[in-house]
Amino acid sequence: MDRKVILLADVKGVGHKNDVVNVSVGYAANYLLPRGLAIDATPQRLAGLAKRKVAQFQEKDAALAGARAIAAKLEGQTVTVYAKATPQGRLYGAITREEVVAALAKQLGVAVEKKAVSIDAPIKALGVYQVSLRLNPEVIVPLAVTVVEAV
Q: How far apart are alpha carbons 39 and 76 in whole angstroms?
């Protein structure tokens, strides 16, 4: 005999959060329900779950559309970062993600989080470098960063 429950958290070997699963009556009554890992799957709760899932899909679609719009704006763009350098062109420090984010906001009017910027190797000299912006798990944009000497 099984009991249908909605998982409130990931349960190893059973399912993930918001999954509707059939488990044995004893497992539900003695483990999942008392620990707050699941609730009974009543028709009202299943309807509420369906509404939440639709809302989550709509939010993901909106976020993806926003990321694609920003990606279109950044396509082929270059940002310039100013830094102090030696006469040989070596920087006194490395260009950080924060500096790239600040340059993006100031020069192109695009606000991204610093964790979205991926710099493959430390930028420690003047020149042009490629960095990646992960705007969404599905949208990754290459961006050229020009490092010039600050005067």
A: 50
